Amino acid sequence: MHERTLVSMAAAVAVLLAPAARAGEPPKKTPQLLEKGKASFALNCAACHGAKGEGDGAAAAALNPKPRNFATDPFKHGSSVAQVYETLGTGSPGTAMIAFKHLPDEERWGLAYYVLDLKSVGKGAKK
Fold first, then answer.
1. What is the extent of the structural domain holding 78?
2. How far apart are CA 28 and CA 45, in angstroms?
């Protein structure tokens, strides 16, 4: 009986740690993953960050601090895809940005890649 309990506990730990292991290595950036990220951004982020990620969404006026402008503002918690993915999972303390851990890993990775694309598109933007 004791051995069966240990095996069950080991299996439970493996199941709990599996998402963390998957989250550690970014998947390959593909057009399909970016489309998933774009759709997620429209649903989860645009109300605050705006359709183009410029921090000018409909809810932005009511927020303090204002949402980040991905085109011009630096990222608070790092600008690698893994760091953006992690920020999406933890939120941004001291701001209105909540944690999006409820999103499936693939969608969160797509969202991270999409946000970084908004940054690269906005590099030439003048405000």
1. 27-122
2. 23
Q: Tell me the Cα Rg of the chain.
A: 18
- 19 in a structural domain: no
Q: Give the total number of structural domains in the chain.
A: 1
**Does residue 107 belong to any structural domain of this protein?**
yes
Residues 6+ apart with CB under 8 A from 75: 68, 83, 84, 87, 119
Residues making up the chain, counted from first to last: 127
**Residue matched to tokens 């701001």:** 95
CATH number of the domain encompassing residue 101: 1.10.760.10
pTM: 0.77
Q: Other C-beta atoms within 10 Å of 116: how many?
A: 20
> Does residue 17 lie in a domain region?
no
Per-residue pLDDT of the chain (127 residues; tens, 9 = 90+): 555 544 454 444 444 444 443 456 999 999 999 999 999 999 999 999 999 999 999 999 999 999 999 999 999 999 999 999 999 999 999 999 999 999 999 999 999 999 999 988 876 444 4
In a domain, 83, yes or no: yes
